[in-house]
Design brief:
Helix 2 packs parallel to helix 4. This protein has a single domain, classed as Purple Acid Phosphatase, chain A, domain 2. The strands form two sheets. Strands 8, 9, 10, 11, 12, 13, 14, 15 and 16 form a nine-stranded mixed beta sheet that branches. A seven-stranded mixed beta sheet has the order 1-2-3-4-5-6-7, with no helix packed on it. Helix content is about 20%, strand content about 30%. It has about 240 residues and is an alpha/beta fold.
């Protein structure tokens, strides 16, 4: 695993993943593509997180939205999906859509042309927003699979969710490496955060044990050119 780097520009290989009998392609950007439905899914974009911090006296570089949009644009060009589902926390706060710069808004709306675009409500952005296009809903079911923001865990037969920003830590060649990951047991999946300024929650935390009801699940870690699948129980705690 010495070749692992932060997920992003050099991504060239996806990984096939099964969920409730359906076949998906996990992309190294952190997106998920369902070819049968021509559906692309991303989680936790957190647009305008930088400007949200600036309102509270913290001043990170104000380019997070553009960076996230650029990566999303690249993924859409790669798969040409018919539908896009954004799994909540699409903006970092309720005023984020109003702060969205005009060029970034134009870029977002241009990506939506000719395709269905669904915004799932998250805990950061629970209300429908004006001027960002698309449709708004709390969750959406396609076949047996429910797409939602917060995973339900026990009782959910097949779901794809975000919210938890899964992160896996491993020891490799004397170093400890931390990488975003897809967490899945074949029936439930928690997607990595797609946003540029998003951190992560260790998959050894109790929150993931609740999601997977104590069952064995895998961390599919995002590397530079490929995925690395590791049993969650083998990953390091914080």
């Amino acid at each position: 695993m010495a070749g692992l780097t932060a997920n992003g520009a050099s991504a060239i290989e996806g990984e096939d993943m099964e969920l409730a009998g359906a076949s998906f392609c996990a992309d190294l950007s952190g997106a998920l593509y369902w070819s049968e439905s021509r559906l692309l899914c991303v989680a936790d974009l957190h647009f305008e997180k930088g400007s949200s911090f600036a309102r509270h006296g913290r001043f990170p570089p104000p380019y997070d939205t553009r960076a996230t949009l650029t990566r999303l644009q690249q993924v859409i060009a790669r798969y040409n999906p018919r539908s896009v589902i954004c799994l909540g926390d699409n903006f970092h706060d309720g005023d984020g859509p109003a702060r969205l710069p005009g060029e970034d808004r134009h870029m977002l709306l241009a990506m939506q042309r000719g395709r269905e675009w669904i915004w799932i409500a998250g805990n950061h952005d629970p209300d429908p927003a004006i001027g960002i296009g698309g449709q708004f809903c709390d969750q959406i079911g396609i076949g047996e699979i429910v797409f939602r923001h917060e995973p339900c865990g026990a009782g959910a037969t097949a779901e794809i969710a975000g919210h938890l920003h899964p992160l896996a830590r491993i020891s490799a060649r004397g170093r400890v490496l931390s990488r975003k990951c897809f967490a899945s047991n074949g029936r439930r999946m928690v997607m990595p955060a797609f946003g540029a300024f998003t951190g992560g929650l260790n998959i050894r935390s109790r929150a993931f044990q609740s999601v997977f009801d104590g069952e064995v699940f895998m961390a599919h870690m995002l590397g530079a050119t490929r995925f690395y699948a590791v049993a969650a129980m083998r990953c390091l705690p914080d």
